[in-house]
């Protein structure tokens, strides 16, 4: 391939002095136009390839950033799911000994950190039952027919992470 390029270069340098052309300006001009057209086509081919590579790289970079963000969310979700039982234990400890301000401070700090990472508590008590957010573990019969299904108590808190339910609230429902 190197030899072919070298011969093309020599041809380019010598075509002006071609004996067959006989210093015919028209023939020389035609050869120059032909060579110019070839150079433009080759330039366009390289430019198109370069632009395609640039676009492919930009797409790769965007997909890579999205994948990293998704992995980060997934990893964070796993860690937060592992922390929820600790939060439940803190709630139980505070409920059994409400005078322990140290536990309350720790719980508030933990909730602040988790909220910063997108964790939200699902509101349940006195809310209309929603199967997307609530899991019924007990039903209470009520004579009032206008009440619909209202959550009357919460057995275990539910949480969303960045808008996605990671644990439904376990609730008592009035029917």
TrEMBL record:
UniProt feature coiled coil, ranges: 22-49
SUPFAM superfamilies xref list: Coiled-coil domain of nucleotide exchange factor GrpE (SSF58014), Head domain of nucleotide exchange factor GrpE (SSF51064)
Chief place of localization: cytoplasm
GO cellular component: cytoplasm
Subcellular location: Cytoplasm
Gene3D superfamilies the UniProt entry points to: 3.90.20.20, Head domain of nucleotide exchange factor GrpE (2.30.22.10)
Record has ATP-binding as a keyword: no
Stored HAMAP family: GrpE
Function statement: Participates actively in the response to hyperosmotic and heat shock by preventing the aggregation of stress-denatured proteins, in association with DnaK and GrpE. It is the nucleotide exchange factor for DnaK and may function as a thermosensor. Unfolded proteins bind initially to DnaJ; upon interaction with the DnaJ-bound protein, DnaK hydrolyzes its bound ATP, resulting in the formation of a stable complex. GrpE releases ADP from DnaK; ATP binding to DnaK triggers the release of the substrate protein, thus completing the reaction cycle.
Name of the protein described by the UniProt record: Protein GrpE
Entry superkingdom: Bacteria
GO biological process terms, semicolon-separated: protein folding
Family that this chain belongs to: Belongs to the GrpE family.
Example of a GO MF term: protein homodimerization activity
């Amino acid at each position: 391939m190197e030899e072919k390029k070298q011969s093309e270069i020599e041809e380019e340098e010598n075509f002006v002095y071609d004996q067959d052309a006989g210093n015919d300006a028209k023939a020389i001009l035609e050869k120059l136009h032909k060579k110019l057209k070839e150079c433009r086509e080759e330039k366009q081919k390289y430019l198109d390839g370069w632009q395609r590579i640039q676009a492919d790289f930009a797409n790769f970079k965007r997909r890579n950033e999205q994948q990293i963000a998704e992995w980060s969310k997934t990893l964070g979700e796993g860690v937060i799911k592992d922390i929820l039982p600790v939060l439940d234990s803190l709630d139980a400890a505070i409920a059994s000994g409400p005078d322990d301000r140290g536990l309350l401070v720790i719980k508030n700090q933990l909730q602040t950190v988790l909220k910063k990472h997108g964790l939200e508590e699902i509101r349940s008590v006195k809310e209309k039952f929603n199967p997307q957010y609530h899991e019924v573990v007990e039903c209470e019969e009520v004579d009032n027919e206008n009440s619909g299904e209202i959550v009357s108590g919460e057995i275990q808190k539910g949480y969303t992470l960045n808008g996605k339910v990671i644990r439904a609230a376990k609730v008592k429902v009035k029917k």
